[in-house]
Amino acid sequence: MTVIFNPPPTADRAVTDKPVRHPEKAHRPDTPVLRKPDWIRAKAPTSPEVAETRKLMRDLKLNTVCEEAACPNLGECWKQKHATVMILGAVCTRACAFCNVATGKPAGVDHDEPDHVAEAVGKLGLNHVVITSVDRDDLADGGAAQFVKTIEAIRKSSPATTVEILTPDFIRKPGAIEAVVAARPDVYNHNLETVPRLYPTIRPGARYFTSLQLLARVKEVDPSMFTKSGLMVGLGEEKIEIMQVMDDLRAADVDFLTIGQYLQPTRKHAEVKSFVTPDEFKAYETLAYSKGFLMVSASPLTRSSHHAGDDFARLKANREAKLARA
């Protein structure tokens, strides 16, 4: 979602013989790129820990959303050896206008991947891990079984590690949500990403109410499971629309909301319509808490997995405090 540390655009295919990362966007006109304000700054990913984490991921043949989505927090998180693993490959079957993950036809499922993820968790010494994936509309279960196997592998090798998952919408994949919930992740995250009005242009392969229903279904299956969702701002949404999404999420009993600034990966992606100020993010945070969320993280560089471990500890504490007051 950002260009801060993004590599240069892919060279001409005839010269490099590499596949185009976003073939569906190749012929789109370039969008304007706004100058980033002073409050959007991130640390360069140059520490020894970053190099060590990258080597570990390559040795275990693992992908990270930190790299594939060009996350601005990579330097900070990887310095602490906190990486968000992206399972089911690095090629997505969707073509969202905001996302830097490659689009195309994915390879087959790597059956060793769950054990490799568990090994990485152990070597990094993670107390809390976030596992996400590309969309895999080509699979009968949307990749749900791989989530289950990965959770089980982590539980077996690192039983004290808490597991947070960020799944696709599993649209038209009956039984997928229920299978993943049965594996008992500590947090089930699925991002709405933007307001309903913008779905046709920003998230064309998804449906707002399908994503909302997924979050509601998780609570139906297991009311005790923490649920989480995230939004990007700066895409042209109105404040009243963000307020409505907050109400929809609370109606689905979602516990945790993240809100961050959208940053376009390339000129072929959706353009940034505005940079939301820190004061506006603070106002969104206050508003969200007033609507009953147990936990809210809202800032320009907030991302779904940023500070996820610390946030999970606060989330648990906030629920316990709420129950004590009841």
Automatic annotation (TrEMBL):
Give UniProt keywords alphabetically: 4Fe-4S, Cytoplasm, Iron, Iron-sulfur, Metal-binding, S-adenosyl-L-methionine, Transferase
Q: Which pathway does the database say it acts in?
A: Protein modification; protein lipoylation via endogenous pathway; protein N(6)-(lipoyl)lysine from octanoyl-[acyl-carrier-protein]: step 2/2
Database matches in InterPro entries: Aldolase_TIM, Elp3/MiaA/NifB-like_rSAM, LIAS_N, Lipoyl_synth, rSAM, rSAM_sf
Q: Where in the cell is it found?
A: Cytoplasm
Report domain Radical SAM core positions.
Answer: 78-294
* Annotated positions binding [4Fe-4S] cluster 1: 66, 71, 77, 305
Q: Which Pfam families match?
A: LIAS_N (PF16881), Radical_SAM (PF04055)
Q: How is the cofactor bound?
A: Binds 2 [4Fe-4S] clusters per subunit. One cluster is coordinated with 3 cysteines and an exchangeable S-adenosyl-L-methionine.
Q: Where is this region: Disordered?
A: 1-32
What coarse category fits the chief subcellular location reported for this protein?
A: cytoplasm
Pro residues bias: start-end ranges: 1-10
- Give the source's domain of life in one word: Bacteria
User: Which co-factors does it depend on?
Assistant: [4Fe-4S] cluster
Residue ranges crossing the lipid bilayer per the database entry: none
* Reaction(s) catalysed (UniProt annotation): [[Fe-S] cluster scaffold protein carrying a second [4Fe-4S](2+) cluster] + N(6)-octanoyl-L-lysyl-[protein] + 2 oxidized [2Fe-2S]-[ferredoxin] + 2 S-adenosyl-L-methionine + 4 H(+) = [[Fe-S] cluster scaffold protein] + N(6)-[(R)-dihydrolipoyl]-L-lysyl-[protein] + 4 Fe(3+) + 2 hydrogen sulfide + 2 5'-deoxyadenosine + 2 L-methionine + 2 reduced [2Fe-2S]-[ferredoxin]
Per the UniProt entry, the Enzyme Commission number(s) are 2.8.1.8
**Any signal peptide, and if so, which residues?**
none
Q: Which GO terms describe its molecular function?
A: lipoate synthase activity
Which residues of the sequence carry a binding annotation for [4Fe-4S] cluster 2? 92, 96, 99
Q: What enzyme class is recorded for this protein? A: transferase
Protein family per UniProt: Belongs to the radical SAM superfamily. Lipoyl synthase family.
Do you know which NCBIfam families this protein is assigned to? Answer: lipA, PRK05481.1, PRK12928.1
State what protein this is by name. Lipoyl synthase
What organism does the UniProt record list as the source? Answer: Ferrovibrio xuzhouensis
The top of its lineage is: Bacteria, Pseudomonadati, Pseudomonadota, Alphaproteobacteria, Rhodospirillales
